[in-house]
User: Fold these one by one.
Assistant:
Number 1:
Amino acid sequence: MHHSTSQTDFMGGGIGVGLSLVREIIQSCNGKVEVHSTEGKGSVFTIILPFVEKMAPAMIS
């Protein structure tokens, strides 16, 4: 999935905790977040999660 927004939309609001929350959630799932930025062009955020083939019934709630 790819998401982009204009700089004016981005600068328009929010309290700046979104990426911090994403990082905590992804790390709790044994994943990671990668960021690649190019000055004047923007940033690309990649979320990597481990593949789980099948969950044990006890883990599903």
Number 2:
Amino acid sequence: MEKLQGRDVGIDLAKGIVIVLMVIGHCASADNSSNALQILIGAFHMPFFLIVSGMMYAGGA
């Protein structure tokens, strides 16, 4: 994807989609029951954020 002022639009788009899925997953779990949607979303949204954070880490400390 194209870069916009040093940002990768594809990464930003993917992060936005996962944020929306996270909100949907939390709304689905409001009744305190496990359902397939909650399990499916929960299986990948946090690992995705960890992977993307590692990719975006600049490394300067």
Number 3:
Amino acid sequence: MDKIYLYTKSSCNSCLMLKKYLKYHEIDFTEINIEESNKSDSFISQIKYVPVIKFNSYTISGLDITKINKLFNIPNCKHSSVYLDHASTTKIKKEVLDEMDPYFKKYFSNPSSIYSISCKTKSAIENARLEVAKFLNCDTNEIYFTSGGSEANNTAIKGIAFANINKGNHIITSVIEHKSILNTCKFLEKIGFEITYLPVDKYGKISLNQLKKSITNDTILISIMYANNEIGTIQDINEISKIAKKNNIYFHTDAVQAIGKLHIDLKNSNIDILSLSAHKFYGPKGIGAIYLKSNVSIEPLIHGGGQENNVRSGTENIPYIVGLGKAIKIISQNKKAGYKVKELTNYFISQLQYNIKGVKINGHIVDNLPGYINVTFTKLNTIDIDTFKFMLDCNNIYVSSGSACNELALEQSHVLKSIGLSDNDIKNTIRFTIGEENSKEDIDYTIEIINKILLI
């Protein structure tokens, strides 16, 4: 067989990924670092970016796996896709899509219009509102629809801040909140508000004593997430909300990750404001909701025609509101799915710890969301985490390093930093999040591929 040449640069991450991919498939090649080679070589002088594969008359630039597989007769992965990133988003259910469909086509009228055909769209919105209220055990007039979790969080933080500016300017939150909370707080700091960011322990829990000590006469809001989106740690929301109530302070919780995984009973809680997002529980993206206890008044984030009882103006997104209502109704009726995810989580953790050396599970041992497994691989000596994820991807296994927001911005996880992980451990960490469509076979296949990758 003729020689295969792989042209690389020493600082090229894609080059490292491709080298590992070729070794994984036992393809011999000669590596040529173009930074250390003869610049007069006519082929090297034409290379604009690496990696480049040269084999006979064929040249492939970049990580074009489809072309590489075809060139070297590498069989495509036959295993069906294993999606293990449910904390990032979930696949919309067919029943949800079917419920939404008529409101794109037949029942399209503006619900604010006074003619008869708008009665159907108005009714659809109120039916969805009822489903959310039933699920959370609250009144329908306490539920308001938003464009998603980020808007709900912004509405909660800014809404309370601006409505209570004459009472105080101090807000308490934690260092591991979602970026839609942290960046909103940073914005408020710029205009004169004071923010206390509570630290967390190695499991991701805030200290209730530190929370109590942080309260001042100017504290108007405490905002602590129900459960963390990266490590799955569940906060003691009951105790935190009691502290807030005792001190006559509003309490908001970002429950985006918790909905459908934990039982939430708002009538029997001290939660004043709660945020949720449909795409985390098999509903459509671009729709969420905020719960505002009946005695809570906020300054609206969006001003306009006064829809949603003046809390959130703008023509209602009827199909997506219908989808949210249907999705939350399904999870309220399907308790078995939650048990299955919990069993798979325990199975995955046990298989990781038994089969793979140097595995450290992050997050709380007991107070953790089912399906959330945040793993630091301490023995990644010959492979970096991006290559690791790339190799998983090539085998139809889809995971992330953590929050999708951090991945997009190429930022290091503030959550993992806050629980005390070193920079090196953060780089070697992957978040696996299991959903109700995953199976034991998916877990076994994932463990098998991880083992193969680590042996390269």
